[in-house]
Design a protein that fits this description.
Strand content: 15-25%
Largest sheet: 3 strands, antiparallel
Length: about 100
């Protein structure tokens, strides 16, 4: 097993851990898991999975769960707008 696959597996586990922590209401530990996953991805140059990357806040490192700490809206012109409780906003295109 090479280092990149170990790193990717660890990132996947940290993403799941952050999601469970956020659901349980432990936002600080979830932020630490997100920060650790980002550091591992940087160190091993493997990138974050799309689902994990899109549901983390770049400004405050929160794992975003719609309805709990994030708002998700569809914008005319085929964009998804995700707004974190800290006020940071991300826009992602979606195919028509």
């Amino acid at each position: 097993m090479n280092d990149a696959s170990i790193a990717e597996e660890r990132i996947d586990r940290l993403a799941e851990f952050a999601r469970r922590l956020t659901r349980a209401g432990d936002d600080e530990r979830a932020r630490e898991a997100v920060r650790l996953a980002r550091r591992i991805a940087e160190r091993h140059r493997c990138g974050l999975p799309r689902r994990f990357d899109r549901f983390t806040c770049d400004a405050c490192d929160a794992y975003l769960l719609p309805g709990r700490n994030a708002r998700v809206r569809l914008q005319e012109g085929s964009h998804v707008v995700i707004r974190c409780d800290c006020g940071a906003t991300e826009r992602y295109p979606y195919p028509e």
